[in-house]
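dumping this here before i forget
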Amino acid sequence: MKILLVDDDAGSLRGMQLALIMLKHDCDAYSDPVEAVANYLCHEYDLVITDICMPVMNGFALAERIWGVDSTSKIIFISGYAAEMMEKQEAGEGGIFLQKPVDFCQLKEVLDNVFAESELKKGTNLISDSDSR
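structure:
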C-alpha cells in the first residue's frame, strides 16, 4: 500500500515509518501537515495516517482538506490523547483511531483490514465494469 504519514514529532514519525516499511508498505513521511496536503494533491495514496495534535494544522483539519479532494480516502488518526480521540468517535467523525504509542501488531491488523477492504472494493468495481460491457 502507498501511505502518506504525517506527524510533527520526529521520533514518532520515524518509528511509524520504520514499522510501515517493515510491513512492506511504501511510505511518504512528513512532519509538516501543510506540506503533506500539498504532496497528497500530487500523488495517489491508498491510505493516510496522521497525528491529531500538530501545530499549524491539526489532523482533523488535514483530513477535511483531503476528504475535500477525495471523500473516499481512508484516514487513520493517531494520538497520545485518548480523550480527544473518544470525543471525535462519539461525534461520528470518519476515520480510524489508534492510541499512541501504536502497537505494532494492532497496526498490522488495522492495515490488513484496510487493505482487504480496498481489495474487495476493487474487485467489486471490476465486476461492475465487466457487467456494463
